[in-house]
Amino acid sequence: MSTHYEVLQVSESASLDIIKQRFQQLILQHHPDKRTTTDDDNNVHKILKAWEILRNATSRKSYDIELATQRNKQDMAIGAEIDLDDMEYNEQTSSFALVCRCSGDYVITEEELELGIDIVACNNCSLRIRVLYDVIEED
Ligand SMILES: [Zn+2]
């Protein structure tokens, strides 16, 4: 099973603009006039479904959680466990980042932390880290 991100050939941290661009390109490629195989019907269905989920911030977020949960269950290779304190905080994006050994980045937003997400994938390679943190109750 491909993820919706894989179907649209974008990274999981891609912005909506990028996803939209990609979606439009793919849909054009699979335009009924250009279809050559019956396979394409299936692809178009997948592309539309992926776009439907990822275009909407709320459904994308719950899809991301679903993905993270699946990955947790599968216990996919977690490269390391990193303390949140060891990550670099970016005030502009309200997110924590860590440079991967491939020189890609692990980025986790405060919003994701609040949702209980603790697995972060590198935006450049297939490594993942688990972020260790205490839930902070806000007043
Ligand atoms: Zn990496």
Features:
binds zinc ion; Helix Hairpins; single chain; 139 residues; Microbial ribonuclease fold; 2 domains
Summarize the structure.
It is built from five helices and six strands; from the N terminus they run H-H-H-H-E-E-E-E-H-E-E. The chain has about 140 residues and is an alpha+beta fold. It folds into two domains: about 5-55, Orthogonal Bundle (Helix Hairpins), CATH 1.10.287.110; about 75-130, Roll (Microbial ribonuclease fold), CATH 3.10.660.
Multimerization state: single chain
Return the average pLDDT rounded to an integer: 88
The percentage of residues in β strands lies in 15-25%
Q: Helix share of residues?
A: 40-55%
Q: Could you give the order of strands across the largest sheet?
A: 1-6-5
Number of domains: 2
Which small-molecule ligands are present, each listed once? zinc ion
CATH class of the largest domain: Alpha Beta
Question: What's the overall geometry?
Answer: elongated
Distance between the termini: 42 Å
Low-pLDDT segments, ≥5 res: none
CATH architecture of the largest domain: Roll
Evaluate the radius of gyration: 17 Å
Biggest sheet: strands, sense, closure?
3 strands, mixed
Number of strands: 6
According to CATH, what is the topology of the largest domain?
Microbial ribonuclease fold
- Structural class based on helices, strands and sheet pairing: alpha+beta
Q: Any idea what the CATH superfamily of the largest domain is called?
A: DPH Zinc finger
Give helix and strand order, one letter per element, not per position: HHHHEEEEHEE
